[in-house]
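User: Here's a chain of 490 residues. Predict its fold as tokens.
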Amino acid sequence: MDAALQWLRLIGDGVLHALAQPYYYIAVIIIGFLYMRGTWIERRLFSVRLHVWPILLIRTIVAGLAVGVVLSGISVLIGAQLTAEAAMWLWGTAAILALLRLRYLCFAYAAGVLGILQWLNTFVHLEDGSGWINERAASLAAIDMPAVLLLVALLHGAEALLVRRQGTKFATPMFMEGKRGKLIGAYQLQGYWAVPLLLLVPTGSDGAALDWTPLLPLLSGEHASSGSWSFTALPMVIGFTEWTRSQLPENKARLAAKSLLWYSAAVAVAALAAAWLPSLLPVAAIAALLLHELLIWSSAKRESEGTPLFVHDQRGLMVLGVVPGTPAAQMGLQSGEILHKVNGVRVRTKEELYEALHRNSAFCKLEVLNREGEQRFVQRSRYAGEHHQLGVILAPDDKADFYAEPSPGSFIALLWRSRATKRRELNYGSGSLAAREQAAALALPAASEVVVESLPEGGTGDTSADRVSDETLSAKTEAEPSTPLRRSKR
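Assistant: Prediction complete.
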């Protein structure tokens, strides 16, 4: 009974320590900023927001706390220990790697690099001495690298479950440029979770002895139960960023979760092997690096070889997304479906959709081809003030004003080009006043803003802001010499 009360006291002290640290709150603020920026990008692309960023933030906070409780319990049972110096090495290495490439801001890369450095240090023995470098080398040599690698595996396993359950809730439609320069529709999936952890740390007489033999000390031949232990708080952030143009977002999230789960299992096996046989540490560290790169490469390869899904064809207009709370959402329209007929008229362009909708301004009947290519009918009354396209976000055509262009960069490049806007004129041909009024009703902006905004790069993994890289929003316009039709800035 006394031992249980002592452990409860230590857990309470660890929780208070976590609440007193600013790092978790900083992580939540950064995540909130990323979601808020995503909403800003949606408004620039579609003139409407598709996600409410405070709701996304609350959802990720709750999920992150739940994951933190589970992972803390698992780490205590297996005996994963991490000192304050080890945490500083981990975060510091990740920050330095981010200066080279933003997606390297990931604990998989940091753990792999630290494992290789620790192994190389066994040949030069820099810890022998009293200088500053010798002290740093000694702290590096003291890191329990199998425990760090196992922690990385656990974080990726938790990320796989979160991506599977919540991945599609963070999906955002995008316009991208295809292989032949034609604009196509795509989806970007990104989510971040702040995960507070309580990890074992050796301490003095104020701690408690373990009543069991944890897995890692058992494999390494140590006797962890003979020492005195306490808890230290370590806030972590896991996240993922994926993009797809050849799959539905839910299918992409399912595939990404499966890949992350396999990666987690492979790194866990490598970490346990390194704990059992220390000579396998460089193999485990290199595996953590290369397997993570393999995840990203295989995902990019599948997308490059896949056929673009969100493009218009002879069957009709491809639905890229649906604005929540609009008539399209109430009628059950989904991304990947095709608008074949509107009010009995076949539609192939936005202009034809506009004309078909105005054949009956009080009612609309849609003939839709679902994701399996089967025909279905939906209908609804229309009211004044509703979205001019029923709330449907269509795949882009040649008149689209914005598209996202991936270009990976460093953290310095992200800060340098974090945000900039320009203004260009989009001119329409010399047509009748009715044609120009129709263009205005279709919300085709004449004075369009060219937005240069940093967006995450494709890939999967856990990070402090995982693989937050550089995508820039560029403008694609077709201008003809005539009097420009202007629209007031919203």
